[in-house]
């Protein structure tokens, strides 16, 4: 049954397909940019499942990207590399090597379990208190990972992950994430959660168990963000703990907020827009030559540009570019 | 015994800095439900101001630092927060997050990301001997300054007209405005007070570490957040005690944890924070802002 609602899904899938197609046809550098963008899209859609529907901001989801990425790497790293870099891994992990799909399943499962454990605590708190608890949670995970040398090599980087995230894997994951986010948003539970976002007291009064729906959205969103983290690890081939800290949180939240947290079209538009601007700013801030004049590298310029962009969008459109609208195709619902 | 007393003095002086940081966060949350991430950068910019003026006579440098940070706080209110004041708290939260990121990276652009060393009043590092107990002068100064500032702010909030208006606004902002309190002015004063607190935190922090780096403020802001939450959001007394608790727990863990676990200290601190939240979701001192009213 084709409804107005599903036309949004069709249009957004088409947009993602077109972007991936351009990336596939483009130069190597451009293709890398598109893969990175699609991976970020998986993370942003994951964030949208919880933040978008519940209206509770989470600053802690980078932790699930990190947990997913490291736990999948324990299994996808070639055995020889593991024996050198992580000799203290448990024997069953040390002696097996699996492909990206199995590794991703392990990473997502692990991150979801951890998400369930911490989610139980976080949903006990009211909106802003919950946001701040997620900050504390991120600090805990980062500290533990940065010092668990036997599992992560601590502050040095873990290298040698198979480079399995190509444009195909990124595309499939982005479409999958979109489908799951869409299914959840339009489901009974998604609507209940959105009701609690608009008015928590009224939602409770109509019999919605706000904590329970928040918890399940939190776990689902942790799973998707973990998938994004796993893809990123197998795209760069290198994992560091700092890769999933403040900057990751900032960039993905900016993508979501600039597009509009209430709209999945917004999540997609925001990701493409911010990733595009970030790439251009990265090239500019790397230093360049214009008409024989050397412009030196300006570290921080990219971040400043992104922050200004986010502030301007927030001041002009506090609900993001899309607000709560979605792209739709006028179809007859007969 | 001597070790215990020295650790306690250490704990109280770290807790005092955290308490000031938390009070700054708590003030703005109380008056306008703003969780201000950018407070971390108020502190960082204070540290850099101090670094630039370190050649001057110290009291002058301190006054300049306070001046710059207060000005920055007022500008932030006017340019970034006033336009989103009527939006929901989540939008304000994200605005402050963006502002924090902006200021932090402006510092990276100007000064680079590496820490820069400088030294204000080296004599402060020398210890005072009380019997057999060695206490760094800096710790004594920190505790005295914090106690003085907290008393001053408590008096300000209880005895002056604008202070009482501010407390009224914290209980019910709309009602306070209906009764003739000027909302803009109350919020501006709250920002100015946050600026003063941030500047003092910057001075104490710089005296302790002797370095400036763009990310220093973030850590203090994080501590401020968790302190206000465990204290009970909206309660100023709670924020101060929350800050003190985080500081004392941090120093005690440093002293008590076995060496191989010491690197995980921050994780333990935040785990204690989450444990408190599980046991007392509304915080230790339940504030007026902790429950949504119908």
How would you sum up this structure, described in words?
The complex is a heterodimer of chains A (334) and B (294). With 334 residues, chain A is mostly helical. Chain A has one domain (4-241). Chain A has 15 helices and four strands. Chain A has helices at 4-25, 28-54, 62-76, 79-85, 91-94, 100-122, 127-147, 149-152, 167-186, 188-198, 200-205, 210-236, 246-259, 264-285, 301-316, and strands spanning 158-159, 238-239, 288-290, 293-295. In chain A, the strands form two sheets. In chain A, strands 1-2 form a two-stranded antiparallel ribbon. In chain A, helix 1 (4-25) packs antiparallel against helix 2 (28-54), helix 2 crosses helix 14 (264-285) and helix 9 (167-186) crosses helix 10. The radius of gyration of chain A is 20 Å and the shape is globular. The model of chain A has no long low-confidence stretch (mean pLDDT 87). With 294 residues, chain B is mainly alpha-helical. Chain B has one domain: Orthogonal Bundle (ABC transporter involved in vitamin B12 uptake, BtuC). Helices cover 72% and strands 4% of the residues of chain B. Chain B contains eleven helices and four strands. Chain B has helices at 2-32, 39-52, 58-81, 89-111, 137-159, 161-171, 173-178, 183-209, 216-231, 236-256, 265-279, and strands at 116-117, 127-130, 133-136, 211-212. In chain B, the strands form two sheets. In chain B, strands 1-4 form a two-stranded antiparallel sheet. Chain B is globular, with a radius of gyration of 19 Å. The N and C termini of chain B lie far apart (53 Å). The mean pLDDT of chain B is 85. Classes of the chains: A mainly alpha (334), B mainly alpha (294). At the A-B interface, helix 7, helix 13 and helix 15 of A face helix 4, helix 9 and helix 11 of B.
